[in-house]
Amino acid sequence: MKRIGSISRRVIVTEVAVAALMIVLITVTNLLNLSGNASRSEPRGFYRLTHEPLRHGIFVVLKLPLKQAAALPGDTVRATPEGSYINGRLWPHSGIPADVHSHYPFG
Q1: Alpha carbon distances (Å) from 54 to 58, 60, 83, 93, 103
Q2: Per-residue pLDDT tens over the stretch 56-97
Q3: How is the chain split into domains, by residue range?
Q4: Is 67 within 8 Å of 41 (Cβ atoms)?
């Protein structure tokens, strides 16, 4: 294996290949209008961004991380220690952890 200075040709080829792959992935992601979610707030993965009308349960990007729309204008929302009720139905996983109840006034 020939050396170019102190860096081998194999290392240079590998670095160029990785850089090229990154450029291709970024380009494809932008062309397909994809956004990734790495947070634990919602399922991890890639999501295609659209401008479709809001509806219950749709995922929205307000500011990362990705969040799911629970209520829309005209819906009735009631917040309780066990969770948020949207039109009388408990929204899944919306409960407030027991150790932070003192920060939320209910009555």
Answers
A1: 7, 8, 22, 21, 31
A2: 988 887 776 677 889 999 999 998 888 899 999 999 888 877
A3: 70-107
A4: yes
d(CA 4, CA 13): 12
| Cβ neighbours of 51 (radius 10 Å) | 5
Alpha-carbon gap, residue 93 to 23, rounded angstroms: 38
Nearest to 79 by CA among 62, 96, 57, 67: 96
| 3-state DSSP assignment of residue 11 | helix
Pairing of strands 7-8, 3-4: antiparallel
What is residue 35's three-state secondary structure?
A: strand
Q: Please state the pTM of the whole predicted model.
A: 0.45
* Omega of the bond leading into 105 within 30 degrees of 0 (cis): no
